[in-house]
Amino acid sequence: MFNLFKKIFGQATDLSSLVQNGATIVDVRTIAEYKTGHINGSVNIPLDQLQSRLKELQGSSKPVITVCRSGNRSAMARRILQSAGIDTYNGGAWNLLQLKLK
């Protein structure tokens, strides 16, 4: 059964290791949402601004981890960033990733 899930979903990525090695966490929630709480050191680029702000993330050799409230917007952001050639991972809900990073 595990091999079936691995084939469907691929290998799990250790996001904690990525962060420890300098990955950038991009929170794609709105500015108002971000102000209610966020991961220390994360960058707030709302999803509706992401396309116009790609240059802020391009050129870095470090991967990007996208987060949002539930994981939906961060999945959309991941696709946008990957299309721009940026090594990107979907971190899902910001508060759950924050717990994993402690």
Question: What does this 3D model show about the protein?
Answer:
With 102 residues, the chain is of the alpha/beta class. It has one domain (13-101): Rhodanese-like domain (Oxidized Rhodanese, domain 1, 3-Layer(aba) Sandwich). 42% of the residues lie in helices and 17% in strands. The chain is built from six helices and four strands, in the order H-H-E-H-E-H-E-H-E-H. It is globular and about 30 Å long. The termini are far apart. The model is unreliable at 1-11 (pLDDT under 50).
Provide a short characterization of the protein structure.
This protein is α/β, with parallel strands linked by helices. It is built from six helices and four strands; from the N terminus they run H-H-E-H-E-H-E-H-E-H. The chain has helices at residues 2-9, 15-20, 31-35, 47-50, 72-83, 94-101; strands at residues 24-27, 43-44, 64-68, 88-93.
